[in-house]
Amino acid sequence: MPYFDNIPIISYEGAGSNNPYSFKFYNPEEKVGGRTMEEYLRIGIAYWHTFTADLSEPFGVGTAVRNWNHLDGMELAKARVEAAFEFFEKLGVPYFCFHDVDIAPEGDTLAETNKNLDTIVPMIKDYMKDSKTKLLWNTANNFTHPRFLHGAASSNNADVFAYAAAKVKKQLEVGKELGGENYVFWGGREGYETLLNTDMKIELDNLGRFFHMAVDYAKEIGFDAQFLIEPKPKEPTTHQYDFDVASGLAFLEKYDLTNHFKFNIEANHATLAGHTFEHELHYARVHGVLGSVDANQGHPLLGWDTDEFPTDLYATTLAMYEIIKNGGLGRGGLNFDAKVRRGSFEQEDLIHAHIAGMDSFAVGLKVAQQMYDDRVLEDIISERYSSYDSGIGKDIVDGKADFHSLEDHALSLKEISHQSGRLELIKSTMNQYLLRVNAGE
Ligand code: XLS
Ligand code: CA
Ligand code: CA
Fold first, then answer.
1. Does this UniProt record's set of keywords contain Cell membrane (predicted)?
2. pTM to 2 decimals?
3. Which of 95, 194, 293, 352 could form a disulfide with 44 if both were Cys (CB 3.0 to 4.6 A apart)?
């Protein structure tokens, strides 16, 4: 049965179009920086927000009206697969992502859960044969079920550690079966609420052990996906262990895992950590660990994880600037880990939301590429650091300076002269690019 019967195939009609069922800026074929937009952006759809979630939140029940809602159990799971592949085709997206529990219901036992997956995964594989949409990443949901109330790999309970491992083992097999390009570890409840009852050392060590076992098992079955850690500072626990890229990287170094992991960076998690989205992307990029992106946005007035569709063109431009400087996302992509607002309960809102997100990143890509080509920020930044190109600055970066030579230099200075940071000029130039590129100039 068709689930999006009344929705046409969405194609690019340009910025002047009034057709809500069209892309205004996302033109998959259009070349930007030597690649098509489709190749550059590598858009992915998050199964959980789009096909599984009902838009419930802590203050209210679900509001989503979906024409698969009358079904339940495995029938519902199968309908969602059909709906998903129809939806992917309408938008022409190259990727999707899921957790185990998004695609198949949990059974009463682990064996039953695996059996449910063994029915749905071949069905997805079959649909993938006739679809261009591929698996960007999958993951295990080791946070929703009550068994994970004290965490998963960082639980105080070894039985839960084992259960979590079994679920990841299964998802590594599923990822291999479906040709997943990456595999994500988001530390759902890998963190703690209070030190009053927590042994942080054993929890962190166990987390390190868990990741090594996952690396070993993927190797054993020949699953060569890129492993990604997805940092988040809080929610659901008060202190999540993968706080941000910097702390995640320190963890990987301590546990000798740097060769096996990169990062999946989510915009809303960056802002929850007190960073900007571009800060996290930049930090990962300069350390060579920018793997993939969960493209969404938080709300500046709300202190929680609102997972909105990305529409802030400043943010998408600065994000794409980092991605361009990274030489693209490699095997990663832009997964819309985003949900329509609770008031946007109609099924067609799912399409409008994805169009909004795809158009916003298309704008970001075009503006950022133009700025990059014109070396707008590059020239300003290299000029700003030019004191390290010669003299004492060069000695510092070449490792030739020490506290003696630095003291001599400081004593010889009559005055220290500065250049302006020109921030307002830079921001108005960026506005100029945003408006110019989108006026087609
Ligand atoms: C939740 C996370 C989650 C991960 C995948 O905040 O964003 O959805 O992306 O488990
Ligand atoms: Ca995410
Ligand atoms: Ca989130």
1. no
2. 0.97
3. 95
